[in-house]
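Side project, low priority. Logging it here so it doesn't get lost.
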Amino acid sequence: MEEHESTLRKNNNKIQAIEKKQNDIIYQLEDLQIEEKNRIADQKSFGEKIKASANKLEELERLNPFIENYKVYFGQPGGDFDFAQVSGQQLIEELK
């Protein structure tokens, strides 16, 4: 009888360990699902910001026709319109 009880305890311990691993996996899955939802929301927000920026650029070009003449200089290394040399945050600070 003791041997049978010992076997039952061992099997019960194994079951509990498996259940713990299962619960851990479930929690990890739930965390991943939350991360995925957040990532999707971030992508949607980023897409909306890109669209708003494109609309703003179009509006600026429409209101300021001279921009069209300077577009060829945008992004030229070392030039006045070399936007890669300046961070977006730095530009915002300079405009304040």
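Brief comment: Residues 66-96 form one domain.
Revisit when time allows.
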